[in-house]
Each structure stands twice: as structure tokens, then as C-alpha cells.
Amino acid sequence: MELQKPNTYKYEAASLVGFVQQLASNILPHGYWFYCMGVVPDSKCLDQVDRKLLTKYQIAISRQQRARRKAEGQANLHYLRLGRIWILLATHGKHRYFELEANHIRDCRKVPIQVGGYSISVKPGGVLRTNDEHRPVTSDPKMRVRVQISRERFRELLYYFQEISCRRNIESLSSELYSIPYEPYAPVRRQLLTVVRKVNEKRQQAGLDKLPYTVLRYQRTIVKPFERAE
User: Fold this and answer.
1) What is the pLDDT of residues 2-36, one digit of tens each?
2) Cα(27)–Cα(226) distance, rounded to whole angstroms?
3) Do 16 and 116 sit in the same domain of this protein?
4) pTM of the model
């Protein structure tokens, strides 16, 4: 199988935001659910590891080749790296990857991808929204990517803001909440709304003014995953 030239297949994310965005928007929605992750040791050359994995698993192929492999019941793979953290992801199908990495492969529908304080998984879509009150509620048949703050990191944030909720003024709390370094994907927004609600409960008990929910950031920063910001 003819591989693309090395510089045509992009895999090195320039930032954590770009790494998560590439997974959530461009890889996982297309069925690349079977993953294994690792860290390149300091003693190893990143370029050599990249070339080895790209060649070993025939990853740098064209869209046409991916479509043909899918039609033949074979799996396709993607490779993504952030610094020394790397991840391989595969679709359903036949591939030597499933044999060689059998002990390390996880299904992100069952075991979320953990990176940089994020937890990324694929779950059933839940309930479809409708503007017609007479239309019965239906289930969303699609699998959706879910990006949220990891459980451990969320607990740390919750405990921290509850601890300082009555010791800081509104301006200071608002600044810290707005600066929380997690992109506000829908599940992240719900988690942070919980933080604000818990902070307000503490402040109300102490007779202090409550925070408005506008202290949170609601718009994600969209980046070019493989280009470093100026």
C-alpha cells in the first residue's frame, strides 16, 4: 500500500486545546473508538517513534484508501501526538494493530481517554430536542463525543472554590472562574455551573451576594490543531 508523504499526514498537535479538539471533532466522531496511549521516553527521538508507528500500522494513507479499507472490512487508524504523549486510534475491522496491541487497547465508549485533566468518551446521544411540543420525545440513535473535566480534577476544582467562596470578593472569584483552563464543551459547562451553584450556596448561607452565571466562559476557542498560535 502506497503511503502519503510524511509531511501530508498531520499528527503533532500544537497545544492541549488542539489535541482535544482534533480528537473530539475530527477523529472520534468517525468511529475511531479503539485506542492505546503512551509516553515517549526522554531517551527516544520523537521523529523516529512517529515514523515507526506511521509505517508499522500504515496510517498515513489517503481518504480514498481509507474508504476502500472500510468497504473491505478492514480497520483504519489515526495517530496523534502532543509533546511526548501519543495515542493510536482505530475503527472496527481487521488489522494487525488489534493483535500487536491487544493488551493495551481500550474502547473509549467504556474507558474514557484521559489527557491534561480532560476525560473524553463516546456515549449514546440521549434525547433529541424538538421545538414541537406535540411531537413525542425520541432517543438520539447516534453516538456522541463527550468532553468533560476528569472526575479527580473536577473534585479538586469544586473543593477549592467552595473553600474560598466566602473569603474572596465577587471580582476575585469571577476572575478565577472565568480563567479555569478547560474549554467549555457542553459537559464542561454543566460541571462549571455546578461549581458556581455550590459557591453561591456557601455565600448565601454566609449572607453574601451570589455570583452571576455570566462569570463562566461559554464559547470555545477554536484553533488550528497543528499550528502554533502567534
Assistant:
1) 455 555 899 999 999 999 999 999 999 999 999 99
2) 14
3) yes
4) 0.90
Task: Based on the fold, state whether residues 12 and 109 are members of the same structural domain.
Answer: yes
**Does 48 lie in the same domain as 98?**
yes
**Angle at CA 153, nearest 5°, toward 140 and 212?**
75
How confident is the model over 116-141, as a mean pLDDT?
76
Looking at the fold, whether 117 and 155 belong to one and the same domain comes out as no
Q: Express each pLDDT in 88-120 by its tens digit.
A: 999 999 999 999 999 999 999 999 999 999 999
Find the helix or strand (DSSP H, E) in which 17 lies.
Answer: helix 16-21
Based on the domain organization, do 108 and 171 belong to the same domain? Answer: no
Dihedral over Cα of 92, 97, 98, 104: its sign: negative
In terms of DSSP H, where are the helices of 97-208? 97-100, 151-164, 170-178, 186-205
The set of cell numbers assigned to 172 is 476575585
Query: Are residues 105 and 196 located together in one domain of the fold?
Result: no
Mean of the pLDDT values across residues 148-169? 97
Split into its structural domains, the chain has a count of: 2
